[in-house]
Design goal:
Largest sheet: 8 strands, parallel
Order of helices and strands: HEHEHEHHEHEHEEHEHEHEEHHH
Number of strands: 11
CATH class of the largest domain: Alpha Beta
Distance between the termini: 6 Å
Shape: globular
Helix content: 25-40%
Structural class: alpha/beta
Strand order of the largest sheet: 1-9-8-6-5-4-3-2
CATH architecture of the largest domain: Alpha-Beta Barrel
CATH topology of the largest domain: TIM Barrel
Number of domains: 2
């Protein structure tokens, strides 16, 4: 059974939730033409979540998805933070950012002041659930596993479909055992944060189509292919391999309804968009983005980066200073490996390019 029947939509495509690059407008645009639009809530507190859900409710009666992170917030580590800031200190000097001693940072040129905080990534909690319950979205998805059952039970109670990402067979089986309605097979090509939660060994993770085949053979719940899918050929290939649908994100990053910044759009549509890598520099957790200066000079994965999501705080002043000069040297340019479909066009047009025909007889 395709996700069209399971979720009450017309096109077997989910628009991937992309925190920082979209709001409710993109979700509404996709849902209104028959796909499953998604609202990313990882950067939203309860008040902003309510505002976005209210905007969706006023703009569409079609099914939509709300996505949450469900990571365990880390304990601050002053020594690790100090070492991280010391590593970044030469760039603070280069961009003329004030440097001064702070707690747990030894005196000298490596001691930089406490930077402005980067946007906080919320983990799903009771306050967010209380807002969600007022709107009862038909689909709720999670990244980094699942929240505790006491947070899931009310969602099940109003009949919402629950999805979560898996990057390995073991994760898919873990999710199935906990009652998800579908598993998103996040291939290694996918942009943004890796959804792994049982094993952080990146060498154990597969490309999208290999992962789809393995998950289809391993679990009984529907499998949704995600990663590198930017056209109708990719969607059809996923379905032919047994997937119940496809999730696409990068292809929507330059659409009219996204909030992707001009610097990010330029990278996506320029030659640099062909080179992406997994990096933990921007948040402390591996995520795929377009290679830029900090990734080239510091290395893609660095052990000094504070635990997710704390790494971004010390980078915030560098990012702001560089962006004022028109540079994306310290900006997370999240992207999947395949940027060929990125273009300025209405989201509805992009969605129809992913599924140009009805295909109802194949469901």
């Amino acid at each position: 059974m395709w996700i069209t029947e399971r979720f009450g939509i017309d096109i077997p495509v989910i628009q991937a939730p992309m925190a920082g690059a979209q709001g409710s407008a993109l979700a509404v645009a996709v849902s209104n033409v028959g796909g499953l639009g998604s609202l990313p809530a990882a950067l939203l507190d309860a008040e902003r979540l309510r505002q976005e859900l209210d905007a969706i409710r006023r703009a569409t009666t079609r099914p939509y998805n709300v996505n949450f992170f469900c990571h365990s917030p880390p304990s601050p580590d002053a020594t690790r933070e100090a070492n991280w800031r010391a590593l970044l200190a030469p760039w603070y000097v280069e961009f003329g950012i004030d440097i001064e001693p702070v707690d747990a940072v030894p005196p000298g040129p490596a001691a930089v002041r406490q930077p402005a905080m980067a946007p906080t990534r919320e983990s799903f909690n009771r306050a967010l659930l209380d807002v969600l319950a007022d709107f009862r979205p038909p689909v709720v998805s999670f990244h980094f596993g699942l929240p505790d059952e006491h947070l899931l039970a009310p969602i099940r109670g109003w009949g919402a479909k629950i999805l979560s990402s898996a990057t390995t067979v073991e994760e898919a089986r873990w999710l199935e055992a906990r009652g998800v309605d579908a598993v998103i097979a996040q291939g290694l090509e996918a942009g943004g944060h890796r959804g792994h939660f049982l094993d952080d060994d990146l060498t154990r993770q597969f490309g999208t189509f290999t992962l789809v085949r393995r998950l289809v053979a391993a679990v009984r719940v529907p499998v949704i292919a995600a990663g590198g899918i930017v056209d109708a050929t990719g969607v059809r290939a996923a379905l032919d391999l047994g997937a119940a649908g496809a999730q696409a994100g990068t292809v929507f990053l330059c659409c009219d309804e996204s909030t992707t910044t001009p610097l990010h759009r330029a990278a996506l549509t320029g030659p640099e968009g062909a080179h992406t890598a997994l990096t933990n520099l921007f948040t402390g957790r591996p995520a795929r983005g377009i290679v830029n200066r900090i990734m080239r000079e510091l290395g893609y994965l660095h052990s000094a980066a504070p635990a997710f999501p704390l790494a971004g705080a010390a980078l915030a002043p560098l990012r702001a200073a560089a962006e004022r000069l028109g540079l994306s040297d310290f900006t997370p340019l999240w992207s999947g490996q395949n940027t060929t479909g990125c273009r300025a066009a209405p989201a509805a047009e992009i969605l129809r390019s992913l599924w140009p025909g009805p295909g109802a007889d194949n469901q």
